[in-house]
Automatic annotation (TrEMBL):
GO terms for cellular component: plasma membrane. Residues 222-347 form the SSD domain. It comes from Kitasatospora cineracea. It is a multi-pass membrane protein. The keyword Cell membrane applies. This is RND superfamily putative drug exporter.
Length: 771
């Protein structure tokens, strides 16, 4: 085939594989594709609005002590079981002056659906308040403990209206009424990511305008990513009707979907635009872009989804579902890049640079990267060194990144050491990491649960926001021995360190279960409260019932969160091992090079450790928390490190695949391993830099969220991508690849025979070698 045929895009049908034909078909029939996308999008959104589910943070784990204790209490004393929440009351005058309104509100709460019981904080007329009870010593603050048969945050906004109606007499009388615990979660404002999305989109527009110089080229990735995310969120809402997802799930899905959606579209658009500059017609250019860069997008998307799927190894449905939520928008982002974007490119045609802010230039592809479909990946291997040297010389003469790579070649150990020192310094805080649950006290004061937290802390101590329920199952104990058992338990609970108070033991109506409430001295998210739960469940209670067949449990929301924390901490290392192994396997399959795969896994571990260190310094040490709107020092949310690890490992593989595929392609053509690194940096640095800057901006924009966990995830992911795209990609990877030299691509013969041949960047686009 002549070079003129290559440029014009007259490629035999035999040479056009599935991806090429998909991209070209979408570009030739853009109306069909766009209408199809809009119909599916509208249909999914309407279905989500009609039957979509709600989101709730349910930390219950079958088989844990907290869950078993809750089940035992619910079976023998339903009114004391279920999920508890507080309705906090406060006024400048003693609450006893509002006896009638309090009684009316409590009665109304008791008759609401899902309510098992509601405890009146005021004593009967003529009786003194019980010390340590739900009425403060000054009588100005009290709380109604309401127990539900489920998690209130899943009941829907209509249920909140019923609760508001029940307490309306109190509010009409001027009493301040706030909702704490899970009920406060239901009362939170509907989470909106609009501000974060606008910030992310705004920065993305600026970056794309500077990078492409074209208004149309800058807008296409944003349109493709936005529609893909909207589709993904609609699908997630439908899944939420079948199972419970965490409250952060839609925000996390939006964050990841926007980031990868813009990135994937950007990589395809870059290749398409270069094809247009090389003279191909728009439809053929779109097909070639999908067959080349689209192949890398498909592999990268699969990598992210596989890494997220690794969370299921934890055996914790909460974590597995968060991975599923993020994976949904990753899948729709890949679909959007491979179908919706080519359709948009078909509509635009050659008008890509009609509206420009600067003169368009080739976007980071060297002369030899404009390979038509008649060029096989190995053609350059027999072409001689002179041709490769000629290209290198031309690129080096005008390529900043090429010259930079040459400097790395001369002192690889210095650059590798500089990168290593940087990430190790950032990782210094990591050993002091404290996993925990972020309590209501870190929320903004605009939230009712935060106001309830402050009122409870001031009147009853911070531990009152996370009371513990102690349950003793004495059904197997002889009736004659039960009084002694109750006395032993009550005595054991007296004076336990880090407890503020312990209520008298109560007996269930059937006499089979003892239960009481222990109020910690510290806030629920305090490390001392976590230690208290462990001390009660592992030492105090077992010692109290030793020698009897009684079973003991510590339950309640705080205890369930501690059980969740323990389980996550115990399974964090297995998750890391699985995700690292999956990433190693993917790189090995794509590049058939064990050393390259090992290098990728190790460098990703180092960069993630650095991002963990930044999180500890900002949130746990409080070095930047107040500036981000976080009240005080908070622990690292227990599931954030695990989620970050899966997400970041998947995302970092994107850049790894895009960069290494160019290194590998060049090395196969010239045999010059060092020149291949320089060439790959020059051809990918601009687009990877733009993509990383956009993703960092999208993630960082979510720091403005009111949800502290979202702030933490946004900052952690932004820092991770920033470190990965700068320190790792610009310092450590080029230095490591230079030091490895040709050995980087060594593959044992036995391994070479069993590994499949995966063409990551479509370099085998010849008429006879096209998949």
């Amino acid at each position: 085939m002549s070079s003129s045929d290559t440029v014009s895009g007259s490629v035999p049908e035999k040479g056009r594989g599935r991806l090429w034909r998909l991209g070209e078909w979408c570009a030739r029939r853009p109306v069909v594709v766009l209408v199809g996308w809009l119909l599916v999008l509208v249909g999914v959104q309407v279905a989500d609005h009609l039957v979509g589910g709600a989101y709730s943070d349910d930390f219950s784990l079958p088989g844990t002590q907290a869950q078993e204790g809750r089940d035992v209490l619910a079976a023998h004393e339903p009114a004391a079981g279920g999920t508890s929440a507080q309705v906090v009351l406060h006024d400048g005058q003693p609450l006893v002056q509002f006896q009638a309104q309090v009684d009316q509100a409590v009665t109304s709460l008791q008759h609401l659906p899902h309510v098992l019981s509601a405890q009146n904080p005021l004593p009967p007329p003529g009786q003194a308040p019980q010390p340590g009870g739900p009425l403060a010593a000054d009588g100005l603050t009290g709380y109604v403990t309401v127990r539900f048969d489920g998690v209130p945050s899943t009941f829907g906004s209509d249920y909140l209206t019923q609760v508001d109606g029940a307490v309306a007499p109190l509010r009409q009388a001027g009493v301040q009424v706030e909702y704490g615990g899970p009920l406060g979660e239901l009362a939170r404002p509907e989470p909106s990511d609009r501000v974060s999305e606008l910030i992310g989109f705004g920065v993305a527009i600026v970056v794309l305008l500077v990078g492409f110089g074209s208004v149309i080229a800058a807008g296409l990735p944003l349109v493709s990513a936005l529609l893909a995310v909207l589709l993904g969120l609609g699908l997630l809402g439908l899944l939420a009707a079948l199972t419970t997802f965490a409250t952060v799930a839609p925000t996390l899905a939006t964050m990841i979907g926007l980031g990868v959606g813009i990135d994937y579209a950007l990589f395809l658009l870059t290749r398409h635009r270069q094809n247009l500059m090389d003279g191909r017609d728009p439809r053929t250019a779109a097909g070639h872009a999908v067959a080349t860069s689209g192949r890398a997008v498909l592999i990268s998307g699969c990598t992210v989804v596989i890494a997220l799927a690794g969370l299921s190894v934890s055996g914790i449905s909460f974590m597995a579902k968060l991975g599923l939520a993020a994976g949904v928008t990753v899948v729709t982002a890949v679909c959007g890049a491979l179908t919706l974007l080519p359709a948009l490119l078909g509509v635009i045609g050659r008008r890509m640079d009609r509206f420009t802010v600067r003169t368009p230039v080739a976007e980071g592809t060297g002369p030899d990267d404009r390979s038509g479909p008649d060029e096989s990946a190995g053609a350059g291997e027999n072409a001689g060194t002179d041709q490769g040297a000629e290209v290198d010389q031309g690129a080096g003469a005008g390529g900043m990144w090429h010259r930079y790579a040459r400097r790395v070649e001369r002192r690889p150990w210095w650059y590798l050491a500089a990168g290593l020192v940087t990430v190790l310094v950032l990782a210094v805080p990591l050993p002091s990491i404290q996993l925990g649950h972020i309590g209501d006290g870190a929320d903004p004061t605009s939230f009712t649960d935060r106001r309830a937290f402050d009122l409870m802390s001031a009147a009853f101590g911070p531990g009152s926001n996370g009371p513990l329920t102690v349950v003793v199952d004495q059904s197997a104990v002889a009736a004659s021995d039960r009084p002694a058992l109750a006395s032993a338990v009550q005595q054991a609970l007296a004076g336990v360190p880090d407890t503020a108070s312990t209520a008298p033991l109560q007996t269930s109506a059937d006499g089979e279960v003892l239960f009481t409430t222990v109020t910690p001295a510290q806030a629920p998210q305090s490390e001392r409260t976590t230690d208290l739960v462990g001390h009660l469940s592992d030492t105090v209670l077992p010692d109290a019932v030793r020698g009897t067949p009684a079973a003991t449990y510590v339950t309640g929301t705080t205890a369930a969160q501690v059980d969740f924390l323990d389980l996550v901490a115990a399974r964090l290392l297995p998750i890391i091992a699985v995700v690292v192994a999956l990433a190693f396997l993917i790189i090995l399959l794509v590049f058939r090079a064990p050393l390259v795969a090992l290098k990728a896994a190790v460098l990703n571990l180092v960069s993630i450790a650095a991002s963990y260190g930044v999180l500890v310094a900002v949130f746990q040490w409080g070095w930047g928390g107040p500036a981000l709107g976080v009240s005080g020092k908070v622990p690292i949310e227990s599931y954030v490190p695990m989620m970050m690890f899966a997400i970041v490992f998947g995302l970092s593989m994107d850049y790894e695949v895009f960069l290494l595929s160019r290194v590998h392609e060049r090395w196969r053509r010239t045999g010059d391993s060092r020149g291949a690194v320089a060439h790959a940096l020059e051809t990918t640095a601009r687009v990877i830099g733009c993509a990383a800057l956009i993703m960092v901006s999208v993630f960082a924009a979510f720091i403005v969220s009111d949800n502290v966990v979202i702030k933490m995830m946004g900052l952690g992911l932004a820092v991770s991508v920033l470190i990965d795209a700068t320190v790792v990609r610009l310092l450590m990877v080029p230095a490591a690849m230079t030091l490895l030299g040709g050995a980087a691509w060594w593959t044992p013969r036995w391994l070479d025979r069993i590994l499949p041949d995966i063409d990551a960047e479509g370099t085998n686009l010849s008429p006879d070698a096209m998949s």
